[in-house]
Each structure stands twice: as C-alpha cells, then as structure tokens.
Design brief:
With 98 residues, the protein is mainly alpha-helical. The protein contains six helices and three strands, in the order βααββαααα. It is globular and about 50 Å long.
Length: 98
C-alpha cells in the first residue's frame, strides 16, 4: 500500500506560492481554515489544505492564479498531439479507461 508523502510549507513559502501576504496565511491559520503542525516553534502548513482553502474564496483564488502558482498551470497543459498521451497506451495501463 503506497504512502502519500505529506507536503508542508512554512508561512512565508505558502504566501509566496499562493500570491498572498503572510498576514493572510496567518489569518487562515487563526481561523482554522488550514491544517498545520508546529515544528520547532514554526507553523508547517499542509499543502493540500492550502490548495482547498485557496479554492474557497474568490479573492484568494484570483491572487493564486494571477501572482501565485496558478499562473503556471496553463503552461503544464500539453497542446502538442505528439506528446499527448496515446489513448491506446492509456487503455493498456488502465483497462477501465475504455
């Protein structure tokens, strides 16, 4: 059974990654909108909960997509058919894909 690694970010890393201020991240922690642990007196915020939190509010979502990690998502989409997954190969990997 594979174990999914938990990605945790500091307050400053989360603020840079999501394009918001550190104050906004600390407010989310205070309002218990994100999950976190305290390691050596510093907040380490669960990335998955940050992503869910960033999708709830329109202003945070807009900042994430404009200044944060969201501005790069469109570049990840493969538009060149040569490099797109071949449906035949996908059906070999996942028989339910057919």
């Amino acid at each position: 059974m594979p174990v999914n690694p938990v990605i945790r970010l500091s307050v400053s890393e989360a603020a840079r990654m999501f394009g918001v201020s550190q104050r906004t991240i600390r407010r989310a922690i205070q309002n218990q909108e994100v999950t976190y642990v305290v390691v050596q007196g510093r907040y380490k915020i669960n990335f998955e909960s940050l992503l869910r939190w960033s999708q709830r509010t329109t202003t945070v979502r807009n900042k994430r997509d404009g200044k944060g990690i969201g501005q790069y998502v469109d570049q990840w989409k493969i538009k060149n058919k040569l490099f797109s997954p071949n449906p035949e190969n996908l059906s070999k990997i996942d028989p339910e894909a057919e």
